[in-house]
Amino acid sequence: MLAVIDASPDEDRFDLYRTYNQLMGTWIQVDLSAALMEEAASATSPSEEEKIRTTLRDQAQFALWELDDAVAYLERNTPGADRREFSRINEAIRSLLSETKALISRLLECCAS
Questions:
Q1: 68-113 pLDDT, tens digit each
Q2: Domain count of the fold of the chain
Q3: What is the pTM of this model?
């Protein structure tokens, strides 16, 4: 995405950077969910694991909301949509978001058990 931004005309850059920032915010939430999952797996006591799993459940729900929001954002705001390169990257990003959403959904199901 950053390569597309660098190669884009000046008039497209602001919207592309805004899209990049939106996606980075979403990815931070996904990373936090992954970190909490690792923390829960390495918990040293059942009470510690339960506390982390509760936090993980809440975080995973928020990450799912962020993923849905990112997909909706890409659907509403497609800067440079007339350019083939951006369209290709946009499709790849949407696919990654969809795959990530499926993983976070499964993680959330595990937290509920």
A1: 999 999 888 765 556 677 778 888 899 999 999 999 999 888 777 6
A2: 1
A3: 0.84
Domain of residue 64: give its range: 2-112
HSE, side-chain direction, 13 A CA sphere, residue 66: 21
* 23 closest CA partner among 73, 92, 91, 80: 73
The Cα–Cα gap between 89 and 1 comes to 7
Rounded Cα distance between 34 and 59, Å, is 10
**Angle at CA of residue 96, ends 72 and 30, nearest 5°:** 80
Looking at 1-113, list the stretches that DSSP marks H as alpha helix, in order from N- to C-terminal side.
2-7, 10-41, 46-76, 84-112
What does the block give as tokens for 79?
């800067």
CA distance 70 to 94: 9
